[in-house]
Every structure is written in C-alpha cells, then in structure tokens.
Amino acid sequence: MSQAPTESHSRIVIVGAGFGGLTAAKRLANTPLDVTVVDQNNYHLFQPLLYQVATASLSPADIASPIRGILRNVDNIRVILAKVSGVDLPRREVLADGRRIPFDDLIIATGAENACVGNDWAHFLPGPKTIDDATYIRRRILIAFELAETEPDADERRRLLNFVVVGGGPTGVELAGSIAELANRALASNFRVIDPRSARIVLVEAAPRLLTTFDPSLSETARRSLGQLGVEVRLRTGVTECDSSGVSIGSERIESRTIIWAAGVKATPAAEWLGAEHDHAGRVMVEPDLSVPGHPNIFVIGDAALMLGANGKPMPGDAGVAKQQGKYVAKLLIARSKSKTFRPFRYRDLGSIAAIGHKSAIVQMHRLKLTGVLGWLVWSVAHIYYLIGFRNRTIVAMNWVWNYLTLQRGTRLITGVTGSRIEDMAKCVLSRAAAKTDGAALPYAATATLEQSSRQAPQSVHVDGRIDQAGDPAKR
Ligand SMILES: Cc1cc2nc3c(=O)[nH]c(=O)nc-3n(C[C@H](O)[C@H](O)[C@H](O)COP(=O)(O)OP(=O)(O)OC[C@H]3O[C@@H](n4cnc5c(N)ncnc54)[C@H](O)[C@@H]3O)c2cc1C
C-alpha cells in the first residue's frame, strides 16, 4: 500500500502532457488540488499516427491538439509552455526555461526520444518521434521522387528510388507498408519519366522475426502482407555501416538516399534530473506505486519509467501503459489528499495492434488474433477512439475513407525547403544536424558526408558499432 503522507500535498506539477501526463491531469480536473502542467510543446501529440504524417496521409494538425484547449474548462489546472531541464530536489522545484516551479507532488511523464546509436551518422537517420521529424521524413521521401524524375544518371536515380527503414517493430512495419503504398498507388501515375512503382523499399530487422512482441504467427502474417505490398524484409540483419548514399547490412550494400530510423527509443533524461536508478534505456526504476525510491512524492510514469509486469518483463512502452499509469497516480494523489492509502499499480494488458498498409492490420488481444481487413477495422476504430477531439476524429476518419476509396494521399506537400536540387536536400540535412548539436560544430564525419551529397559517389563514413535491436525492451 502506498503511504499517506501527513504533510499538505496540494501543489501538483505534471511535466509532460503526452498520454500519461494528460490522463493524470484530466483525472485531477475539478478537484481541490492545485495542478500545473508543463510541456515543451503547446500541443498533445498522438504519436501512433505520426507515420501517416511522414507518408503524406494526414496533416500534423490532424493528430495534435492544443493542451490549453483540451484543459480550457478546468479551473484548478494551469498550463505552462516550457522545457524542463532539471529538478531541485531539496527545494522541491522544477527548473524550466529559467523558471522555478514549486511542487508538493511531482509527476514526470516526459516519454522517450529516438535512440540512434551514438555514431556520427545517427544525425542522418530521422525517425518519426515528433511532428518536425514526421514532416522532415515526408519531405525527404517526396523530394527523392522529384529528384529521380529529372536525374540523368541511372545509378543516382536508383539510389533515390531506394528507401531503407531500419527496425521491424510496429513503427517500422507501418512506415515501410505506407511508403510502399505511396509509391505503388498514390504516386504511380503522377510522373512522366520514372515509374514510382519501381521504388525499392527495404525493411531491416536484426531479430529473427518482425514485431517480436506479437505472436510468431502474426509476425509471419505481417511479413507476408508486406511482401505483397512490395516491401523487401531482411531479418537477422543489423546495419553495420551508413552514409548519405546508403547502408551496409552485413556484406550487402543497399544504395539509398532515404534511410529512416525506427529501431528504438530511449527515455528522456528524467533519471538524470532525479539522480535515480535507471536501466540501459534511461528508464527510471520505480516502486510499485510508481514513485521514485526514496521520494514518495515524486512519480515517473509512461515511457520514462521502468516497471516490471506480472511476467517479470518490463511493461511495454506504449500509450496504454502510460494512460493507465497516469490515471493511477492521479487517483493515488486524490486518495492521499484525503489521508487514505492506495493499492499498488496493476497493469491491464489490452493487446497490441499494427497496421500494414491502408486496409490490413494485425491485432492481438489475449487469445484473439485478427488479420486483414477485419484487423484494420479494429485498428481504425481504436485509433479514432483514442484520438483527442471531435475535429481530429472526424477529419482522420474522413481522410481514411477518402484514401481507402481513391488510393490517394491528401498531404503530399514538400515544405521547409525550396528548389529541387540534391544540394538543397543536403542543406536541409545540415540544418537538422546542426540543430541537434545546438549549433555546435558538426563532427568531421557528418560534415564530410554532407559536402559529398552530390552526384559523385560519396566517401563512406565507417562506423565501429553494429545496431543490434534484438531484444531491446525500449524498441517500438
Ligand atoms: C511513431 C510511433 C508510433 C507509436 N505507435 C503506438 C501504437 O500504435 N500504440 C501504442 O500504444 N503506442 C504507440 N507508440 C508509443 C506511445 O506513443 C508512447 O508509449 C506514449 O506516447 C508514451 O506516453 P508518455 O506519456 O510516456 O510520453 P509522451 O506521450 O511521449 O509524452 C511526453 C510529453 O512530454 C513532453 N516533454 C518531453 N520532454 C520534456 C521536457 N524536457 N520539458 C517539458 N516537456 C517535455 C513532450 O513534449 C510530450 O508532450 C508509438 C510511438 C511512436 C514514436
């Protein structure tokens, strides 16, 4: 049982308004407790549909909702737009953009970020984690087709029409299937010189099967369905080398201008802020009531937390876990405010789903397994149900019906870069890498690769490490 502290616990600060933080905030709405929600963005993001923004099916605004708008009718909650950089434990204050925000109870729900292995080339591998990531990937994919249309050199044309997705979890599977449909259907008749259907989409996975958290029979269904969409699936294969013109997987070289990372995430730095024990993916080890050991008034939930499930394995990094944990901590704090004790957290597994293209999905709910169109219907209803806001639900549902009937993609916009030359593409990669290093000088290898992003075959940037995704609990 969670203890019921005797001191006053009225000021609750929630850092992060993602699935976990927002659920906690909604549960604490209209209580006598004084709640502050701090997020670095002014919107709540529905990450499960980011891959559809990256592949031109949906617009960013369709899958994001302003946090202030969601909480507009709740008098006991205020919202602060700020990036948290630490916690002053002795003074019980959150440090955010030069501010100090005092708390009695703190809920950290800052989620995860892309975990590219710490090599220079990690800068070049975008993964769909934020809206900026997704629109950047969309730009890269669409530009590749545009450049291929006017490219005289056959080798470079081939390079532009090859797409490599690294990581065979739900995100990688969904991305690869969606890129294949974009090439084979939505773009098929839109070009005059190239045939977009000749695009090659390769999905690379280090484990012996795709979707390792699903039943092996569903992994096999997913592999077959991707094959029917034209995706080449490479299993038991890690990326050993990567540069701006392709990847090496073992002894095989795949020339490609578009390589996308979907092979794992690591927790945001909550463990550093708290000086707390954590696993290799940075997740804070928490007590059965989700509090941090030694700090009964500080809770870490969602992707930032590590809690073992009934099977002794870490609970999955998914929206269902984050929402249940958010609800639990809110209820615990309400109970504590009434000097009551509360039971430990119990996770209820609602199952897993993954889409393969625009009309097929696999669903696993305990012993129930669904595939094909039936699976896709369950997938669609679940996503519409969990999306926030009537507007977004309606627009996404209408978009899907339109995509289903016409095979078209409504948001094929190249934004953020003007011009059509490969140098412009290189520039947009450079600005991204520079932003990631906060303006600091780029590592030599990264600069070298950018300078070589031209029609000549670039110099290879060798890496020492191998990306081994097998068995990574933080992988999505
Ligand atoms: C591409 C993709 C597809 C996915 N698909 C699925 C799926 O199909 N089904 C499923 O169940 N799960 C899916 N997930 C996983 C799911 O989205 C996460 O498990 C879930 O979002 C975790 O919730 P959270 O509350 O821990 O963190 P998040 O929802 O990530 O929220 C974290 C919040 O904290 C804020 N934040 C972070 N750092 C700071 C800081 N320093 N200061 C202030 N604010 C900060 C962020 O802006 C964000 O709003 C997917 C994830 C990705 C990336």
Task: Outline the structure in words.
The protein has helices at 19-28, 50-54, 67-70, 131-150, 154-160, 170-186, 216-229, 270-274, 319-337, 372-386, 390-406, 422-436, 444-451, and strands at residues 11-15, 34-39, 43-45, 64-66, 77-81, 84-88, 93-96, 99-102, 105-108, 112-114, 162-166, 200-204, 231-234, 239-243, 246-249, 252-255, 258-261, 265-267, 284-285, 291-292, 295-300, 305-306, 352-355, 361-365, 368-370. The strands form 8 sheets. A 6-stranded mixed β-sheet has the order 5-2-1-9-21-20, covered by helices on one side. A 4-stranded parallel β-sheet has the order 13-12-11-17. Strands 6-7-8 form a 3-stranded antiparallel β-sheet. The protein folds into 2 domains: 11-40 and 82-114 and 265-337, FAD/NAD(P)-binding domain (3-Layer(bba) Sandwich); 120-263 and 353-451, FAD/NAD(P)-binding domain (3-Layer(bba) Sandwich). Residues 428-475 have low confidence and may be disordered. Helix 1 packs parallel to helix 9, helix 4 packs antiparallel against helix 5 (154-160) and helix 12 runs antiparallel to helix 13. With 476 residues, the chain is of the alpha/beta class. Flavin-adenine dinucleotide binds at residues 15-21, 38-41, 47-48, 50-51, 83-84, 109-111, 128-129, 170-171, 268, 302-304, 317-320, 322, 476.
Question: Which features characterize this protein?
Answer:
FAD/NAD(P)-binding domain; four-stranded parallel β-sheet; binds flavin-adenine dinucleotide; 21% strand; 33% helix; six-stranded mixed β-sheet; 476 residues; 2 domains; disordered C terminus; elongated; alpha/beta
